[in-house]
Amino acid sequence: MENSVKKAWVRAAWAVLFAACAAGAAVSAAMARRAIGAAEEAERRAAALQAENGSLLDAMDKMSAGLRDASAKLRFYCDADCEFAYQLPEAHAFFFESEGSEIYGSAYVPGASWKGPRPCIVALHGFPGFARWDDVARSLCRAGFTVIVPHHRGAWGSRGRYTVSGCVRDAVNIAAAATSGALPREYRIDPSAVWLFGHSMGGNSALGAAAQVKAVKGAILAAPCDIGGMALSKDWDRPHLKRFLEENGASALACDGLDALCDDIIANAKAMSFAANIPALAGRRVYLAGGFFDSTIGKDAIEEADRRLSAAGVEHETKIYRSEHSFSGVRVALTADIARFAGAADARFPK
Asked: Cis peptide before 150, with omega less than 30 degrees from 0?
C-alpha cells in the first residue's frame, strides 16, 4: 500500500514540476534540466529516508522540500510570488519630451521588496519597432531592474517626425535624464548603473548615445545595425539603402518619406558609424548578441563589431544565439544573460 501511495505521490510531484515549467513561459532547456535534477535528487532522498525508517510521511515532506527548491530556481521565469500588493512590480506610462517631441512608452519598476535605487536598462526598439521587447523588460524588472521602454519620435504614437539621427538624440536625452535628471527619483533608478539596450537600429541608437553620455555604464547590443557604416560603404548606394528601409517597414513610421530618411542617414553616416562610436566606450562594458540564422544583421556583421570592440580595447562579451533577427526562440536565455551581465549585487537570476 505504501509503495503504491509513494508512486502516486512521485507522479503528482512530477506533474507539479512540469506545470511550473509550463507556467514559466519558455523555460530554457538548461534551466529545466537543473530543475528536473533537483526533483530527481528529492525523489532519491525520499526513497532513502523511507528505507531507513519506513515513514512515508517524512519521505513525502522531504520530496516536497526538493520540489520547492526546484520551483525557486524557476521564479525568474514565472509570476512574482508576492504576499502583499506593494511587493508587486509596477508598470507605468512613460512620458518624456525630447527636443520638442513627446516620447511615449512604458517604465517597469521593481516592487518595494527591492531595496534602494535600482540599476536601470533603457530598451531601444529597432526599425520600425515591430519586434517588441516588453517581455524581456518585464522579466528584467522581476530580476530587480528598472526598465524604460520608449518609442522614438514618429514611432508607435510618439510625436514628431522619425529620423535615424533623431533616434540617437532621443536616446541621448533619455540617458542624460536617467543618469543626472529627474528620472532616477521618479522611477527609483541608480544613476550610476544605467545601461542602454538596443535591438537592430536601436543598437545604433544605444551605441551612439552611450558614446555621448559618459555616465552610462555600458551598452547591450542585440543584432545592432551599423547603418552609418553601411551608408559609407561602396556596396551601399542610395537605391540600395532606400530599398532596405522600404523592405523593413518604413511605411509604419511618421516620417517625411524614404528620400528624407536616406538624406538623414547619409548626412550623419560618419558620426553614427560604429567605427566612430566604439572607441568612446573604452573603460566601459558592452554585451554583443547576434543570431546565427539572422538574415538582416548577419553573423559576419556581429563578428566585425566584435573585432572593432577588441581593437578599441573595449571590455565586452559576444555571443551568437541559435535564433533569427528578433531572438524569438532564445529570449529567456538572452534575458538571463543580460541580467547576469548588467546585474546588481542583489539581482535575482538563474546561476
From this structure: no
What average pLDDT does the chain have? 84
**pLDDT (tens digit, 9 = 90+) per residue, 163-209?**
999 999 999 999 999 999 889 999 999 999 999 999 999 999 999 99
Q: Are strands 90-98 and 101-109 parallel, antiparallel or unpaired?
A: antiparallel
Domain ranges across the chain: 2-77, 85-342
pLDDT digit string, tens, across residues 61-110: 655 555 555 544 444 445 555 566 667 889 999 999 999 999 999 999 99
**H runs (alpha helix) in the chain:** 2-23, 29-53, 56-73, 134-142, 164-180, 183-187, 201-212, 227-232, 238-247, 258-267, 269-272, 274-277, 299-311, 331-342
In this prediction, residues 228-236 reach a mean pLDDT of 93
Per-residue cell: 60 = 513525502
Look at residue 181 in the predicted model and tell me its pLDDT.
Answer: 84
Give me 97's grid cell.
519630451
On the CB side of 106, CA atoms within 13 Å amount to 17
- Maximum pairwise Cα distance, the chain: 81
CATH of 85-342, one of 3.60.21.10, 3.40.50.1820, 3.30.2270.10, 3.30.450.40: 3.40.50.1820
